[in-house]
Amino acid sequence: MPGPPAVDYRATSARPGWDALPSSLQQSLAVALGTEIAHVGPSVTSGFTGGFAAPVDLADGRQVFVKAAPDTLHAYRAYQREAEVVPQLPEALRVPRIITTALTDSWFAVVSERVSGRMPGSPWSAADFSAVTSACETMADALTPTPLPGLDVLVDDIASGGWPIDLPAQILSGNRPLPTGFQPWLPAVLRELGDLIALYPEALAGDTAMHSDLRPDNLLIDQYGACWTVDWNWLSLGPNWFDWSCLLPIAQYEGIDTQAAISKSPLTADVPPDHLDCGAALVAAYMLDDLDTTPPLGCTPELRRHQRLYAWTFLDWLALRRGWSA
């Protein structure tokens, strides 16, 4: 049986360097920070967008992290949203705090405190999984009910067509092809996959402000072993367990016994199994969609490899729980 592609989340982006930023934006950043830019490190290689993202040393001794993008890239609005959201997050969350922003020449930049750390995973360790789980439990507690007003509601977004909930039925009816390169038992479980997705109005209801995009490259383990979360620009309202559950399939694939963790965590111990499986089925369908199309402007081809890896691992996780591959 074929397997999913390997994705090194430390090397998925193609970002511009400091010299690509307009001089007017560089000058505006110095004014906003109240000091000169002393040194700019190389852009990070994680993520899938073409936005600038790099560590910066300031003349006054501070060390910060700068992200910037032109308004032609979707990262432009993502960085603006992060600058809006992070100051509203509870202090209990380990999130790099926003220091300042700058806007000029159709570019936007956001400056945050710099956190030295590494991604979890590749492979996941028990210690990393424990730290990430603890962070997700803290997030869920601090963000329930949501302290942020005006967030999109996940079930409403799904109902309005924001997610490909009809994908299994479309494949079964012959209106779209079966994605290639996946588990041989996938055709036999499409109907059950669709039935699980159909549970979303009840299964994915909730009043928790969710990060909604937790992946290994949106997590940092610091020198003390604590987990930080970054890239807060896709928040929505849903169940308090959803963020953590979206990390379980990739952790399971890399050797973590997530089934035992589910029964122990206060996030999931009392959640109906079909509700957890509904969330995984929905993400699997989302990742199976548009697999062979050109990535959005500013995104690298690694985005599609990420989708394949996630579709595979979420399907495998469901197969483990539901006996699909037996």
Short description:
The chain is an alpha+beta fold and 326 residues long. It has helices at residues 23-33, 74-85, 126-142, 154-162, 167-172, 186-197, 200-203, 242-245, 248-253, 258-264, 273-288, 302-322; strands at 37-40, 52-58, 63-70, 98-104, 107-113, 152-153, 208-210, 219-221, 227-229, 236-238.
What's the CATH superfamily of the largest domain, by name?
Aminoglycoside phosphotransferase (APH), C-terminal lobe
Beta-strand residue fraction = 5-15%
The CATH class of the largest domain is identified as Alpha Beta
Q: Low-confidence segments, ≥5 residues, pLDDT <50?
A: none
| Rounded average pLDDT | 96
Q: What multimeric state do the chains show?
A: single chain
Cα shape = globular
The number of domains is 2
* Total E-strand runs: 10
- Looking at the overall shape, the CATH architecture of the largest domain is Alpha-Beta Complex
Molecular structure report:
With 326 residues, the chain is α+β, with helices and mostly antiparallel strands. The protein folds into 2 domains: 18-113, Phosphorylase Kinase, domain 1; 126-322, Aminoglycoside 3'-phosphotransferase, Chain: A, domain 2. Helices cover 38% and strands 14% of the residues. It contains 12 helices and 10 strands. It has helices spanning 23-33, 74-85, 126-142, 154-162, 167-172, 186-197, 200-203, 242-245, 248-253, 258-264, 273-288, 302-322; strands spanning 37-40, 52-58, 63-70, 98-104, 107-113, 152-153, 208-210, 219-221, 227-229, 236-238. It has a 5-stranded antiparallel beta sheet with strand order 1-2-3-5-4, sandwiched between helices. The protein has a 3-stranded mixed beta sheet with strand order 6-10-7. A two-stranded antiparallel sheet has the order 8-9. Strand 8 and strand 9 form a beta hairpin. Helix 6 packs across helix 11 and helix 11 runs antiparallel to helix 12. The radius of gyration is 20 Å and the shape is globular. 42% of the residues are buried.
